[in-house]
Request: fold
Amino acid sequence: MDIKKQLFENVSIGNITLENRVGVAPMTRISATSEGLVTDQMVSYYTSFARGGFGLVITEGTYIDDQYSQTYLDQPGIAFDEQANSWKKVVNSVHNEGAKIFMQIQHSGALSQGNHFIRETIAPSPVQPKGEQLDFYLGKGPFKTPREATKEDIKDVITAFVQAAKRAKSVGFDGVEIHGANGYLLDEFLTDYTNQRNDEYGGSTENRVRLLVEVSKAVREAVGQNFTIGIRISQGKVNDYTHKWYGKEKDAEIIFGQLGQIGLDYIHVTEHRAWEPAFDSGKATLASLAKKYGNITIIANGHLEDPIKAKNMIEKGDADIITIGKGALANHDWVNKVKNGETLTEFNQEEILRPDAKIKQFEA
Reply:
């Protein structure tokens, strides 16, 4: 079984070529300044993955405006030129080590638990999120009940994604990933129980995916054809781990079919275990359904730190690229270790989440 040939060959994604098919998944951090500026610690963190052999690094979710998008205190932003410019040292350092880097751009929606611009939250509908805020991201107690987003709010959201993507491009990022997963704003529009609207953004699956389509189209138009853009999609959420799409494969057909036709370069699919069936009524993985109906480059994520499982996703054609979260945190040099036949370190959550670590992660 030739793991190296499968995982460590070059692959194109959009207008760029990666040195291998292994990327670092976007993982939430609270290591920026209170003003959302990049710190030296962040430069070292991202550079270490590039030095460790990963062909692609995707940043943590980065907030996009000075309104409702911020999710956590000490989260980095791309809402202002000063914030964008602070990312240049990350981009340059990662490039110097031979890797490509995408910025994940994010709007938190109802799951915001730390926003120093505005106290209220917005969502498709005034539905209080399930569960409680995450204490290791400085949250406490139940989530607020959000205000229903107006049509003007929706226009502002689209504009914020566009401006964030343009800023990311201007400071040298190789691409942007629109965060449409994990229960944040775009996923709240996609999810039936959080979206109770009766306008063109609510009701049918075709309507609920509309905002994701509109954001993606607007970003593509703004950055041009030669800049790589993708979107991250999931079923589960940070506050609703086991959620599945009600329409099962029919929903997958509609969602991935729509997203595959609008100029995106890739879809990044994340599941708890990427190799397992997406629905109890079938055998197909969510990544394979994205490939079938989206018909574009697919990145798969979900406990793929085992090289055999990662290789199998590529070999079966379920995905073109895999990303690793917890396994990468435990092994910033995962690629180099696998290439050299070295033993991988097991992920230790207590070590990663210790109070002085400030490299806290959740959704990988």
